[in-house]
Amino acid sequence: MRRAIASFPPVLKSNPYQRLLYEHLAAHGFELADGAQFELGWLWRARREAGVLHFHWPQSFWHHERGPAVLRGPLSYVKVALVAVRLAAARALGYRVVWTIHQVYPHERSDPRLERLGARALATLSHILIAHDESTREHAVRELGPPGRKTAIVPHGSYLGVYPPGRARAAVRKELDLGVDDLAFLCFGNLRAYKDVGFMLRAFGLADLRDAALIVAGSVTNDSVAADVRAAAAADTRVKPRLGFVPDDAVAELFGAADVAIVARNDGGTSGAVVLALSMGVPVVAPRRPAYAELLGADRAGWLYEPGDTASLQAALEQAAAAGPAERATRGEAAQRRAEELAWPAIAARTAALIRGERT
Fold first, then answer.
1. What residue ranges do the domains of the chain occupy?
2. pLDDT 10s per residue in the chain (360 long)?
C-alpha cells in the first residue's frame, strides 16, 4: 500500500491535533504528502507516492465563497458534484479515502441541503469514517444513512506536553487582576456562536460566586459573541476578557492561573476544549452529554450540568466554588489521569489499522 497521506485541509497551525496525529502515524509508515491538492491533476501526478486522502473539515470543498452572492449557492452545488467526481477518480486510482468526522455538519450552516449532499457524497465514497466518540458516530449514522455505518471510533488524543509551561501562576493572576484567593474560571477557545458563550455569561452572572472571576480567552471569529463578552465585562468586573489569538507559549500559563475550566457548548459534539483542559490537569464544568460525561468520568474530573439549563449551569458553578481547593485539586488530578489515557501512540496505531482496512 502507498503510504503517503494527503491531509485536507493541510495541517493547521492554530490547532496541534493534526500535527500530533501525523507525527505518531509516521511510526506506522505513514508520512504526509507534500503539496497535496484535491484536484484531478494532482491525484494523477501523485498516484505512485500518495495512497491516502484524509479529510478532517471538508466543507470548504463544496462551499463557493467568491464572486457575486447570487451565484455562490448554485456554484456550491456544482462544487459538490466536482467533489464526487474527484473522489470517484481517486478510488479508481487506488487511493484510500478517510474522513475523520469532527462534526457531521459545520457549526454554522447557511444551506442544510448543501451540507447534507456534500457530507453524504464524501461518506459514500470514503472507505472508512472515524469519529472520536459514540455520540458523533450515532449522529453520522442518523444523517448519512448506510454509509454512516462505516464509522469507527478512535478517541481524540490528548494535548499533554504540547504547550510550554509559561510564567508562574502568581504572575499571570496578577496580570489578570485576580486576588490571591479568587476562584478563577476559564473559558478558552475561539469565540463562535455554537460555543454558547452568552449562555455561560448569563449563568455566571446569576451564580452566587464571591471572590470569583471568569476569564474568557480566545480568537474572535464572531463579532456578536465578542460584543456579549465585552458587555458582560463592562457590567461585571469579575469577567476578564482576553480576546484575540492566544500564542502557544501563553496557553498553559492561562490554565495554570485558572482553577476550573468551563465548556458551555450544549450540543455535545466532539470538544477539543474539554480534552485540552483535561490535559492541563484542570477540572471542567461541562454539559451532561455522553461524550463529555465519558471524558470526565461522570463527575470525577469536573461537574456536569443539564444542557441548555441556565439554573443547572449556575448550580454547577456554585458546586465547583463550594468544593474547595482540596476537592478541586483531586478532580484536577483525575482530569490529568484521564488525559493520560488518551495517549497518541495507541490512537495512531488504531488509526493506522483503519487506514489499512483492518477493522479492529
1. 4-157+343-355, 169-341
2. 668 999 999 999 888 999 999 999 999 999 999 999 999 999 999 999 999 999 999 999 998 888 787 778 888 999 999 999 999 999 999 999 999 999 999 988 789 999 999 999 999 999 999 999 999 999 999 999 999 999 999 999 999 999 999 999 999 999 999 988 999 999 999 999 999 999 999 999 999 998 999 999 999 999 999 999 999 999 999 999 999 999 999 999 999 999 999 999 999 888 999 999 999 999 999 999 999 999 999 889 999 999 999 999 999 999 999 999 999 999 999 999 999 999 999 999 999 999 999 865
Going 301 to 303 to 308 to 313, the CA torsion angle's sign is negative
- Cα distance between residue 216 and residue 195, in whole Å: 12
Residue 25 C-alpha cell reads as 502515524
Rounded to whole angstroms, what are the CA distances from 121 to 40, 62, 335? Answer: 17, 11, 38
Instruction: Say if residue 338 is exposed, middle or buried (CB neighbours under 10 Å; 0-12, 13-18, 19+).
Output: buried
Instruction: Give one DSSP letter per residue of 125-186, joined into a string.
Output: H-SEEEESSHHHHHHHHHHH-GGGGGEEE-PPPP-TTTS---S-HHHHHHHTT--TT-EEEE
Instruction: Take residue 47 and report the three cell numbers written for it.
Output: 498516484
Instruction: List pLDDT tens digits, range 190-204.
Output: 999 999 999 999 999
pTM: predicted TM-score of the whole model, two decimal places:
0.94
Amino acid present at 25 = L
Q: Exposure pattern of 33-61 as b/e (b: 16+ CB <10 Å)?
A: beebebeeebbeebeeebbbbbbbebbeb
Q: How many residues does the chain have?
A: 360
CATH number for 4-157+343-355: choose from 3.40.50.300, 1.10.260.40, 3.40.640.10, 3.40.50.2000: 3.40.50.2000
Amino acid at 246: V
DSSP E strands in the chain: the ranges are: 4-8, 31-32, 50-55, 96-100, 128-131, 151-153, 183-188, 212-218, 239-243, 260-262, 284-287, 302-305
Residue listed under C-alpha cell 491531509: 7
